[in-house]
Write a structure and sequence with these properties.
The chain is of the alpha+beta class. The chain has a single domain, classed as q2cbj1_9rhob like domain (Jelly Rolls). Helices cover 19% and strands 34% of the residues. The protein has helices at 12-25, 42-62; strands at 4-7, 33-34, 69-73, 76-80, 97-106, 113-116, 122-123, 131-136, 141-143, 153-167, 170-174, 185-188. The strands form two sheets. Strands 1, 2, 3, 4, 5, 8, 10, 11 and 12 form a nine-stranded antiparallel β-sheet that branches. A three-stranded antiparallel β-sheet has the order 7-6-9, with no helix packed on it. It is globular, with a radius of gyration of 17 Å. It starts with a strand and ends with a strand. It binds fe (ii) ion. The site of fe (ii) ion (FE2) has 4 residues, from loops.
Length: 189
């Protein structure tokens, strides 16, 4: 299921910014925390985007996609702990997303993240602190509740959506709109 992986930790400065942002924005203590792209979070996004932009560019180069495509990527940050709920099985594919990823920024020894097959079997990939993994966006995955008390499990995740794919004189362009509600593909020869 995993198409690329690396291990990289954020700088101490970026990690402190993440912690600060979670502490000041996590209101409902029974619910896992997710960043939303709004005015409360602009600073943290400005810090996260260059860090993940570089990792994504390295990944797209290794996958042979960097020189033949244009793409958009999203980033969000999540925190769950033994007092919060966790993330039920879901996928990130709503029509335009091709590659999804998660970065295990600070995780317990317990493997919480899993992929789920059509028979509800769960597979837990290696997921140590610092690991970054990417998979096809249609893959169903979820997160188990953290068992260890007093441990904030922090991850960042996101999607990559192609806006253009150009190889062997065949050009595919999507007019993905800003809200990502419409994605129409055009094929040129
Ligand atoms: Fe997810």
């Amino acid at each position: 299921m995993i198409i690329w992986r690396t291990n990289q930790s954020p700088s101490d400065g970026l990690y402190s910014e993440m912690l600060e942002s979670i502490q000041s924005n996590h209101k409902n203590k029974e619910q896992f925390y997710t960043t939303f792209y709004d005015e409360n979070n602009l600073n943290i996004f400005n810090s996260l985007l260059p860090f993940y932009g570089e990792i994504i560019s390295n990944m797209m180069t290794d996958l042979g996609l960097q020189h033949i495509s244009r793409y958009q990527y999203t980033v969000w940050m999540q925190m769950n702990n033994s007092s919060t709920n966790s993330h039920n099985p879901h996928s990130h594919f709503v029509g335009a997303e091709s590659i999804s990823w998660v970065h295990f920024v600070n995780v317990p020894n317990q493997k919480c993240f899993y992929f789920q097959d059509s028979n509800n079997n769960k597979t837990y990939p290696d997921q140590n602190t610092g690991d970054f993994i990417a998979w096809p966006s249609w893959a169903i995955h979820g997160v188990d509740k953290v068992k260890q008390s007093n441990f904030d499990r922090i991850i960042c995740a996101g999607n990559i959506s192609f806006t253009e794919y150009n190889f062997n004189n065949q050009r595919v362009i999507s007019d993905l709109n800003e809200e990502k509600t419409i994605c129409r593909w055009h094929i040129y020869k």
